[in-house]
């Protein structure tokens, strides 16, 4: 049977979107620590964070499915860490595998988003919510797999975040990333080359909200993890139907 949306629910959704869009238009403030900036920006929109970004953050379910496939039978009893995990929405994509991991850690620096994560996963004893900086945080035991989902572009010291993630990952462990980006003017031969307008427009668009796009993150990932799989795509943006923002999925194995 077809699913009908009532006028009132559609209006409520538009109002929620309008509140999120208002904060996006205002942008992330430029003063204070990284944690203070995140809290000021995401705190007022935390309760609407996931609903809006379902239509913006593509590839998350696929990344996690591929990560689990890379682990194979090793995922049973393994340690999985999400760095920059926010509200914990991405853990839903684990499906039945969620209860099979021995320990899952979700690490983030924003209290407002972590409050949502704690409420969401309070009944899951193997899920641990950690308020910490992913540039310096270290788990008690090495991780078997970890990933960043639309987080690296929001971390000022993203090089430090990548290096720290590698340090907490055991040899043979799986490293996943899904994020927005734009290519270099002359990218490697096996990568997509984005046009000049794409390379100019999207970094300026996202920078207003503290999201920094460029080719450097992907380049460092490929350098640090030579054994990897890379998928490059474009995705629609809410309320901008004619535009497509580039994003990538990266899955590497630590030597």
Give a concise summary.
The chain is an alpha/beta fold and 255 residues long.
Protein architecture, described:
The structure is a single chain. With 255 residues, the protein is α/β, with parallel strands linked by helices. The protein contains eight helices and seven strands; from the N terminus they run ααααββαββαβααββ. A seven-stranded mixed sheet has the order 3-2-1-4-5-7-6, sandwiched between helices. It is globular, with a radius of gyration of 18 Å.
Summary keywords:
globular; alpha/beta; 255 residues; 8 helices; 7 strands; seven-stranded mixed beta sheet
Q: What's the end-to-end separation, in Å?
A: 51 Å
Mean pLDDT equals: 87
Helix-strand string: HHHHEEHEEHEHHEE
Number of helices: 8
Shape: globular
How are the SSEs ordered, and which strands pair?
Elements: H1 7-26, H2 34-42, H3 49-53, H4 60-71, E1 79-83, E2 103-108, H5 111-120, E3 127-131, E4 143-149, H6 158-168, E5 169-180, H7 196-207, H8 216-224, E6 228-237, E7 240-253
Parallel strand pairs: 1-2, 1-4, 2-3, 4-5
Antiparallel strand pairs: 5-7, 6-7
